[in-house]
């Protein structure tokens, strides 16, 4: 089944210079990259992305982690992969959430760690199912930033807004 999935290379992945390694590993999936960007993650975006984790004791640390406050790298790389069985293929290559339980050949098994506070620094995020993938992709990307029509869109007339352009 054709699927889409969101991958985030988290700030620890960027700090450890793992971008190339992670993308190389994920390319084994033969999936197509249809969108990519570097994002400075606001508190609002972080909280919305991890809203299902709100009640966890580590929620505060998790938000700091994805915002890059634990690694002095205030950015993530967001990538949308598209193709057959995309969600499962990417999760297989990523490995288990807990890097100690992840297969040692998986991305998280190779590069992840558990902090002394017990947070799983597992170098990448991947969507867990179709519904979450849709929610996450729509949260992180505008339709114009994706080169294929993943979901239905509509044209609206927006009030004139101030925006920054190249000087
Ligand atoms: O990222 P994934 O979908 O595999 O796991 P999740 O259950 O959605 O949790 C989101 C993130 O919270 C994980 O990737 C970890 O960084 C963190 N986490 C943690 O630090 N300790 C846990 N016991 C569970 C999750
Ligand atoms: Mg998840």
Topology, please?
Blueprint: E1 2-9, H1 11-15, H2 19-27, E2 32-39, H3 43-49, H4 59-67, E3 76-84, H5 86-94, H6 107-111, E4 113-114, E5 120-121, E6 124-126, H7 130-140
Antiparallel strand pairs: 1-3, 1-6, 2-3, 4-5
Bound molecules: cytidine-5'-diphosphate (CDP) and magnesium ion (MG).
The site of cytidine-5'-diphosphate has 9 residues, from loops.
Looking at this protein, list some descriptive labels.
single chain; about 170 residues; alpha+beta; Alpha-Beta Plaits; four-stranded antiparallel sheet; two-stranded antiparallel sheet; 7 helices; 6 strands; about 35% helix; about 20% strand; binds cytidine-5'-diphosphate; binds magnesium ion
Describe the structure.
It is a single chain. This protein is of the alpha+beta class and 167 residues long. The chain has a single domain, classed as 2-Layer Sandwich (Alpha-Beta Plaits). It is 33% helix and 19% strand. It is built from seven helices and six strands. It has a four-stranded antiparallel beta sheet with strand order 2-3-1-6, with helices on both faces. The protein has a two-stranded antiparallel sheet with strand order 4-5. Strand 4 and strand 5 form a beta hairpin. The chain is globular, with a radius of gyration of 16 Å. The N and C termini lie far apart (45 Å).
């Amino acid at each position: 089944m054709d699927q889409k999935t969101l991958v985030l290379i988290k700030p620890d992945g960027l700090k450890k210079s793992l971008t190339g390694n992670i993308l190389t590993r994920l390319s084994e999936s033969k999936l197509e990259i249809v969108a990519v960007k570097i994002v400075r993650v606001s508190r609002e975006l972080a909280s919305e992305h991890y809203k299902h984790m709100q009640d966890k004791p580590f929620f505060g640390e998790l938000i700091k982690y994805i915002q890059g406050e634990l690694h002095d790298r205030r950015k993530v790389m967001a990538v949308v992969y598209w193709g057959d069985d995309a969600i499962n293929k990417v999760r297989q290559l990523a490995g288990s959430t807990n890097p100690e339980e992840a297969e040692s050949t998986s991305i998280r098994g190779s590069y992840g760690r558990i902090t002394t506070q017990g947070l799983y620094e597992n170098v990448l995020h991947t969507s867990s199912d179709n519904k979450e993938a849709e929610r996450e992709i729509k949260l992180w990307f505008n339709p114009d930033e994706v080169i294929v029509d993943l979901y239905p869109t509509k044209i609206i007339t927006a009030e004139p807004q101030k925006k920054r352009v190249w000087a």
